[in-house]
């Protein structure tokens, strides 16, 4: 589900069946969030093109990068982040695709963001580096209910993601994934992920992740899988492995 117009600043819930998967070429979502526009012949357009080229080179080696291009009212700031387990070549492909797709979906907006499974890309005429973005985010969920007590399951999610949030915020790459058995006799395993953009401090990363975890009950309570996907951080849980190990 996609929207071509700027989205009001509220959380969006998107339902996915358990059997659904998202291809590497398919964006999860995008938002054209800036009320300011530019023309195709403006310096901002050229600066944006330069910035996207910078990010496509800067992001893949480590999975994260920031950059800027231009000056004054035509300056553009950008950020790219790949999921912590994504290889450099796949990261580069995702960032390049994200830049092209975002320009097609938000052709005149001075601020926009797009998410894929493997990466996110954001740019703006405002310097947003080092600031938690609580406005641009959404939810994904599995519409199937879990086959155990909902409260017990949510506590397991909260415990696992809480551990991963603590771990992620204490690492240089601000990323962690892990799993745990639902109980001693269960054959089911709960898998989780927590990640922040690396322009945040460790403390801000932890704050962002804690808020993302606290958002999950409003969209995904009792569901077999769910995510809070934001511009500064994201958390995810599933009953199947979804990261490369």
Automatic annotation (TrEMBL):
* Location in or out of the cell: Secreted
InterPro entries for the chain:
CRR_secretory_protein, GNK2, GNK2_sf
Major site of localization recorded for this protein = secreted
Where does the signal sequence lie?
1-23
Instruction: Quote the CDD domains the UniProt record gives.
Output: Gnk2-like
> Which of UniProt's keywords are assigned here?
Glycoprotein, Repeat, Secreted, Signal
Per its UniProt entry, which superkingdom is the organism in? Eukaryota
GO cellular component terms listed in the entry, alphabetical order: extracellular region
Instruction: Describe the location of the Gnk2-homologous domain by residue ranges.
Output: 26-128, 134-242
Query: So what family is this one in?
Result: Belongs to the cysteine-rich repeat secretory protein family.
Q: What is this protein called?
A: Gnk2-homologous domain-containing protein
Q: Tell me which species this is from.
A: Punica granatum (Pomegranate)
